[in-house]
Amino acid sequence: MSNIDFNGSVTLDRRDAAPAEMPGSAKRVLAFVVVIAALGGTLFGYDCGIISSALLSIGADFGLSSFGKEIVTSAILVGGIFGALGCGPICDRYGRKKTVLAVAVLFILGAIATSLAPDATTLTITRFILGLAVGAITQIMPVYIAEVAPAKRRGALVVLFQMMIAGGELISYLIGYAFSGNWRLMFMLAVIPALILFFGMMVMPESPRWLITQNRADEARRVLTRIRGNAQMASREVEQIITVADNEGDSGSWRDLGKAWVRPALVAALGVSILCQLTGINAVIYYAPTILTQSGFGDSASLLASIGVGVTLVAMTIVGTFLVDHMGRRRLMLLFIPLSVVALIVLGAAFMGGHPSGSMQWVVVVSMLAYIAFNGGSLSVVIWLLNSEVIPLSVRGKGTGLASVSMWVSDLIVSLTTLSLIEFMGASGTFWLYGAISVLAFFFVYRYVPETKGRSLEDIEASLQDGSFLSHRATP
At what angle do helices 281-294 and 299-326 cross, to 10 degrees? Predict the structure, then answer.
């Protein structure tokens, strides 16, 4: 039976018979389910983003070198790799709901342990534990949302998860500014959304798709009746899921990802996942206050300016979410990536000759925000959608999982090297390096990424099978 991908059940993609309007009570139930589930995105964004503010005081308290700061920052990413790899089999065996509850507990314990860490080694270990939770949540939450959402609303609701990630990062900047110097409290505050997620999931239904895989169709029907508000539609949906599950049989193997007809989709998905990180977006998110401090800003001013990074990321995620369905995925990236290159060139130029001073300090801030806007509004928005669209159905679970791991590994590389690169190459050389990689990203998208806007998943898969996948480069 096929694994569930970010777009959810194939049954609902192909054969959903939902009415034009859901009853009001069902809309409210669905909204509550999705908002609670999307809290996982907030935790992801907060726990990854809070290190940028906390690092200023952690470095002073523990006497960390640049490499030591990179180790502490990167520990959560190493955990993320293992969390993303291990979550799939667990949620398939024990269910989506129990897995989310377990991950919420891991978030709570990790946040408490991190806030109490007595030394840098312990802090690194507890950040790794948080990483296990963060990696797991990126796998299970989009799946859970997709499996309970109606087909016609699935795309927007999965994007909500991305919005909550950006929102969590913004909250981390605000908390970092409000509690400047108190890094232990910054980490402890992550317990609050984790507790909300835990108790919220206690009253959430189990995924109806997973229930059917466990031969619990009656329970699945009751869940769907509750969140669809229509018993007949729920019964129809259950029958469709059972029928398609019987027809699909076993899912594709890992070896199937290497088949010639699948390869173009895998190249596109993995390439965008990797380049989204190697172009430096999280280098700025993680180290914005550190970079601004090196630009001559005080700690307080650096933290305040970094809030602008969070606001810009949220705003451009909203803009990118709108444009991706109107302009197209490929066209959006081809328009915005060159603008991000210009921003990186200017940012690097501002650091020529040493620390910026006077008006050049504001050139640093403006060019940094411009880079966040154009990179965050294109590659960072498209990555989740593209992976779920181009990977063929039979291997979509494994393919999207592999793309997620490649993203985490690339993020790890960036976070481990940014400060060291700045010491070795200077800030100018480092930002120009990210600019050069962004140029490569532009040509990669131009050559290997088709346009998927307005096309059904079946049409995309058919183009892979008939060899016309890369010929779809124009916006429909």
Answer: 150
d(CA 199, CA 391): 34
Beta bridge partner(s), residue 5: 8
Predicted confidence (pLDDT) per residue in 59-86, tens digit: 889 998 888 888 898 898 889 888 887 8
Digit-coded pLDDT (tens) for 141-176: 877 876 777 766 655 666 677 788 888 888 988 898
Tokens of 217: 């169709």
Q: Which residue has the tokens 């194939």?
A: 10
Cβ proximity of 145 and 54 under 8 Å: no
Cα–Cα nearest to 176, from 313, 298, 300, 309:
300
pLDDT score recorded for residue 133: 93
Q: What would the two tokens of residue 79 be? A: 């955990």
What single-letter DSSP state applies at residue 252? P
pLDDT, greater one: 453 or 63: 63
- With vertex at residue 417, the alpha carbon angle to CA 415 and CA 420, rounded to the nearest 5 degrees, is 125
Q: Which amino acid is at 410?
A: S
Helices first, then strands: H and E counts in the chain: 19, 0
Using DSSP, state whether 279 is helix, strand or coil: coil
Q: Which of these, 350, 384, 392, lies nearest to 252 by C-alpha position?
A: 392
Tell which residue, 129, 157, 163, has the closest CA to residue 143. 157
Entry pTM: 0.72
Contact 7, 457 (CB under 8 A): yes
Q: From CA 16, how far away is CA 55, in angstroms rounded?
A: 48
